[in-house]
Amino acid sequence: MILWLKKPKSIEVAKYIDCYWLLEKQADVKGNAYPKLNPDPSAHLILSPPEQPYNYKFYNEKLQGKGSHLLYPYCNTIQLDHSQPLKCLGIKFHVGALYALNHAKTAKPLLDTIDEINIEKVLGITQASENKLLTIAKDKPEDCCELLDELLKPWLLKGIEDRHSELTNRVLSLLASLPIHKLSDELNCSQRTIERSFLRVAGMSLKQCQSMNKLEEILEYLYLREKGDIDWVDIACQFGFSDQPHLIRYLKKQLHLTPKDYAQQRGFTIDIYGGVETK
User: Fold this and answer.
1) What pLDDT is attached to residue 271?
2) Would you place residue 127 in the very low, low, confident or very high pLDDT band (cuts 50, 70, 90)?
3) Is residue 46 part of a domain?
4) With a threshold of 0.85, does the pTM exceed it?
5) How do beta strands 53-58 and 2-6 pair?
């Protein structure tokens, strides 16, 4: 279960980091052994003990490993393996942050994949220090956040933003309130320029990112309501779908669940990596 979720206190860190979170499942705690992560346009740096395995299932592909790792933005629902006790300290980046930090040495940002991380190289700490950080995270979350701020700052201060990242940041500030086709008028540049810069920085199209943001809004709305209070017709209208069948097709495509199934499992399908806390 999520123990806490907190924002960075440092302004320099908050430029690239959205939040920190701690997830822990103890041996005596019952719960869904295979929860799901909703599609997320943000990357997560996940710190965990070196012997702790991770297992992500993207459709029929499984990505496995042990210890700390970087989870790149993912456009599809991921199934996790939480059948064993675990502890993860997460660092959630803002959309497109890795582009400015130049972590991925590729022409195009990575999606739907995992990367092994050398914590000593990135944060400048040894394995023993990482283990100590995980211990502090559980007992003293405020101290943990301050320590993460200090550890991340030297890396994040090296971030370089070019015209593509600057345009993408402006787009992200407008995406929730403006239709995609109106962005060019607001930003005084062509739609093609906007699309190309956004794809280069975020690794996905504007439509993909907007769809993931809409899904998050819908699921947070549903999560706060009891099963019997969910009116799918009203939800379809509220979130801009033409009708209920359109909403049903959308949820099935994104979550691989029918609305009925989702209503029963919504405590396990909410984005537990830096999203709404699970019940």
Assistant:
1) 53
2) confident
3) yes
4) yes
5) unpaired
Rg (CA), the chain: 19
Q: Using alpha carbons, list the distances in angstroms from residue 64 to 21, 80, 182, 214, 215.
A: 22, 10, 42, 29, 27
Same domain (yes/no): 150, 214: no
DSSP code at position 65: E
Contact 38, 27 (CB under 8 A): no
Domain count, the chain: 3
| CA-based nearest residue to 149, from 20, 273, 5, 3 | 20
Helix intervals (H) in the chain: 11-14, 97-101, 119-123, 127-139, 141-156, 163-174, 183-187, 191-202, 206-223, 232-238, 244-255, 259-269
d(CA 152, CA 90): 13
Residues 191 and 93 in one domain: no
- The Cβ of residue 188 has, within 10 Å, a number of other Cβ atoms equal to 6
